[in-house]
Amino acid sequence: MSNAPVDNNRRRFLTVATSVVGGVGVIGAAVPFIASWNPSERAKAAGADVEVDISKVEPGQLLRVEWRSKPVWIVRRPAETLADLAKHEDQLKDPNSEKDQQPEFARNQYRSLKEEYLVLVGICTHLGCSPQHLKGGAFAEHVQGVPEGFFCPCHGSKFDMAGRVFQSVPAPSNMVVPPYQYVDDNTIIIGSEAEGA
After folding, report:
1. DSSP assignments along 170-183, one per residue
2. 102-159: pLDDT as tens digits
3. Which of 38, 45, 76, 47 shows the shortest CA–CA distance to 192?
4. 134 is a domain residue
5. Do 62 and 99 belong together in one domain?
């Protein structure tokens, strides 16, 4: 054992220096660890709004896009299709869209912001299959007197051109209308809705 006097200033300096170096090390390890909790750019993009140009969609045409890994359909409905919507309301489970499958702005006969354009998540509300768009009278094979609609081949659920479900099918509710808004006459943003819409 040495009988040399203890240098308290040196001891204090070494204690402080060791604490500072240790603190910097903890912060250096914590920053990347905490940053790893943030979603990746790919995950952010998967949940992001989708901007869609509808200027080239012809009457009767269905445009498919992807939003949050789900198919979204945009259908430009001609005037005769819109007129047919009122003719079969007595055959629908929820003709007035009272259940919450749409934003408040779409609680109308057309289930849309603008009558002409229908925007739907293209997934059957029964077990998640993707229905087929049948037109030109092909849908009338499944529902008498209704020339156009969506038919789910998995279990036979049927939806009209507003995405409203027919009675006596397995699907419990209308197809989902995602939140969306018009930026202008030719552009829709899917994923968020306009203030006060």
Report:
1. S--SPPPPPPEEEE
2. 788 888 889 999 999 999 999 999 888 899 999 988 898 888 889 999 999 989 999 9
3. 47
4. yes
5. yes
Q: Of all helices (H) and strands (E), which one includes residue 35?
A: helix 8-35
Same domain for 69 and 118? yes
| Domain residue limits at 119 | 48-190
Instruction: Please give the Cα distance from 64 to 73 (Å, whole number).
Output: 5
Answer yes or no: do 77 and 168 share one domain: yes
Burial category of 157 from C-beta neighbours within 10 Å (exposed 0-12, middle 13-18, buried 19 and up): buried
For residue 151, count other CB atoms closer than 10 A to its CB.
20
Spatial strand order in the sheet of 187-190: 50-53, 187-190, 180-184
Rounded to whole angstroms, the Cα distance separating 159 from 103 reads 18
74 in helix, strand or coil?
strand
Q: Is 70 exposed, middle or buried (0-12, 13-18, 19+ CB in 10 A)?
A: middle
Bridge-partner residues for 190, per DSSP? 50, 180
Strand partners for 120: 73
